[in-house]
Amino acid sequence: MLDLEYLSQNDKGHLAINGYDAVELTSEFGTPLYVMNEETIRNACREYKKAIDKHYGGKGNVIFASKAMCCKEICRIMDSEKMGLDVVSGGELYTAIEAGFPASRIYFHGNNKSPEEIKMALEYGVGSIVVDNLDELEMINNFAINKNTKAQVLIRITPGIEVHTHDYVKTGQVDSKFGIPIENGEGINAIATVQRCKGIEFKGLHCHIGSQITEEEPFIRTAEVMMDFIKTIKDKLSITVRELNLGGGFGIRYTEKDKKVDYVNYISKVSEKIKSKARQLGVSVPYISIEPGRSIVGEAGLTLYQVGGVKAASKSKVYVSIDGGFTDNPRYALYKSEYTVINASKMNRIEDQKVTIAGKCCESGDIIQEDVMISPVNVGDVIAVLCTGAYNYSMASNYNRITKPAVVMIGKSGPRLIVKRQTLEELIQQDM
Ligand code: LLP
Predict the structure, then answer these.
(1) Domain boundary among 238, 272, 297
(2) Are 93 and 119 in contact (CB under 8 A)?
(3) What are phi and psi of 97, to 5 degrees?
(4) Catalytic machinery residues
(5) CB of 297 within 8 A of CB of 69?
(6) Same domain flag for 363 and 316
(7) Distance of CA 352 from the midpoint of ligand 1 (Å)
């Protein structure tokens, strides 16, 4: 089994999550249930922050990409860890503000921010708006001038870096829908335009090359490309880039085949590259920010389901039907993502059954994982799918009018509900 420090087996042969019996948690909070371990989240924040502090001498910060997991309690945890927060919609921004997260530490992203969202960001006094394109820049400039203020802006640049990850989560290649490319001269034109905008204060550059990246080399090449661009900006426009946001994308472990990624080592190697480039090019080292999402919450979460049926469709295909599915975890259907699945009710038995975990949606593609080995399963058993802390709750849907699960956080004083289970009444609340 994937070795996660907060998981163990208790004397009943059940999965224990930070010492709490998974089966008992489902009796108390119901299924499907997302469970998160607070210490794992906080440790990840601290590890990143320590590494950034060490390598940039306090001139840098870590921003949590809230798209990975966004709810008020997560925002509060990020605030208490003195993290920044990346939001990508009015909804994520509203959640953060309602949670009391300081607007000054928020980075507002998105490749098609609506006029309402931009007004909202200016109204709240968001610390940084990350501009994706020139149309958006014009709109922000006009709103800021009308408001008699200056929007603090980073320009998102497409560095032209290809990475080995699923096509749907690549973002740094030249033809990406995100950002402004350097290659064709649009990057430098954008910075020249920013300089002419009276309602904009140019803070710096942003880039993000993709997600679930496990090699360090593309991050180092990206840092190199961005530093070269900073030098071009200095030479051509005499502008100093104060901040360089290098995005997120660090991969996590989903199964025991995956190697633990050494984030601290990445940060150290990238910082060496940035410092050596700065010396070589005669530019100063900008304030450095990074934007991890998955690697802060991913391994900290798991999902518990109850088995409703076990069916042998053929000699080689046994379906275990669970009471959730791609409504709470669409990642296998979307990206064929691998997961570790365990029978949380029978941890003490040998994993000698090959099964396919099927969701309850009216769709053959509603599969959580295919042909995985688990211990003998019976109706009523609790199945745990590990490492679902990122992009599961945040990507959940109400397809087939299935209600969204609750989220429980296990903290120092035990399990606490941080998101209530959606009710049937809430499902029809918007219906006229
Ligand atoms: N910054 C920007 C601008 C991003 O677009 C993203 C992720 C991040 C930071 C955080 O990346 P992370 O550290 O989490 O890899 N739904 C997909 C992942 C989409 C990622 C989108 N952007 C999945 O489930 O794999």
Answers:
(1) 297
(2) no
(3) -65, -40
(4) 362
(5) yes
(6) yes
(7) 35
